[in-house]
From TrEMBL:
Protein name in the entry: Manganese catalase family protein
Alphabetically ordered keywords of this record: Calcium, Manganese, Metal-binding
Source organism of the structure: Paenibacillus lutrae
Pfam family, one: Mn_catalase
Annotated Mn(2+) binding sites: 36, 70, 73, 150, 183
Origin superkingdom: Bacteria
Length: 300
């Protein structure tokens, strides 16, 4: 089962800097081949279909815990996209073309079908597909695939970071570079235990440290790259048999934390009347409030 909290993993800067094309680029980190929907669903189905989980419990626990974190990454990237789209248009009467300013946006689907919100697509508007999911059932093959998937995701994050200086985009991408790096090292260590091959010698791929990115470096200064969470109060404790020793890049000690990290409030998304969202007028709201009071037997 999953437990959900009304929080996101980091606080995203609240700036008035609409950038639809930055949002389009970030879509690759959501619905692209190496995006967060791919990492989530790869690990999700590997965890559903895991064989001999009792005998191979540390590996099962690792995939289970990382799956839970990936759900939070999908959420975080979606809010980064929303922040970049915010303020792209203004309300006007329909005949005054209120969406005219975004007709040339590289991914106009944000405005035609999404009311200026994130969608399960890549940067070119192609829908995410389950064909991106790999689950061979073979432990080593799946771990090797996951290592490659995280390295590919890391490359794409670096490129998106270099494409835009939008504060919301960079804050999220910088954080995900650090957390994605944790998963790279985790799968490398799992492969070493499973095969005896020291895969951590390949880290980092690409050969550029997260410390080269200001929005990633600040998290590494706090040791965020050394922590792996169980995302459960009681389960998945065996990951400490894999996530142990020191980090291969800076030699800092690794730490397993039972539970989840502290979260931050989910940003409020304002109405976009020119997109008919949420489509509730002030008068409608008063009627809804009245009906809620009546159904709850609440007196004025």
């Amino acid at each position: 089962m999953f437990r959900r909290m009304d929080e996101i993993m980091i606080e995203i800067p609240d700036v008035e800097k609409p950038d639809p094309n930055a949002a389009a680029a970030i879509q690759e980190l959501l619905g692209g081949k190496f995006g967060e929907m791919s990492t989530l669903n790869n690990y999700l189905y590997q965890s559903f279909n895991f064989r001999s989980k009792e005998k191979l419990k540390p590996f099962y626990d690792l995939v289970m815990s990382i799956t839970a974190e990936e759900l939070g990454h999908v959420e975080l990237v979606s809010h980064a996209i929303n922040k970049c789209l915010r303020g792209s248009t203004d309300y006007k009467e329909p005949d005054k073309t209120p969406l005219g300013s975004v007709k040339d946006a590289r991914l106009s689907y944000h405005f035609l079908a999404g009311a200026q919100g994130a969608m399960p697509y890549d940067s070119m508007g192609n829908p995410w597909t389950g064909a991106n999911v790999f689950n061979s059932g073979n432990l080593v093959e799946d771990l090797l695939h996951n290592f490659f998937l995280e390295c590919g995701a890391r490359t794409h994050k670096m490129k998106v970071y270099e494409m835009t200086d939008h504060p919301a985009a960079r804050a999220v991408v910088g954080f995900l570079l650090v957390r994605g790096g944790v998963h790279v090292v985790a799968y490398a260590k799992a492969l070493e235990i499973a095969t005896g091959v020291d895969v951590t010698k390949l880290v980092p791929i690409p050969s550029l440290s997260n410390k080269a990115f200001n929005e990633a470096w600040k998290y590494e200064e706090k040791g965020v790259h050394t922590k792996l969470y169980t995302w459960s109060e009681n389960d998945f404790t065996a990951i400490d048999q894999i996530w142990k020793g020191t980090h291969p890049e800076d030699g800092l000690p690794l730490e397993v934390i039972q539970g989840s990290p502290q979260g931050f409030p989910i940003p409020e998304a304002p109405a976009v009347e020119e997109e008919f969202a949420p489509g509730i007028s002030a008068e409608d709201f008063k009627l809804i409030a009245k009906r809620l009071k009546m159904s709850g037997n609440i007196a004025d």
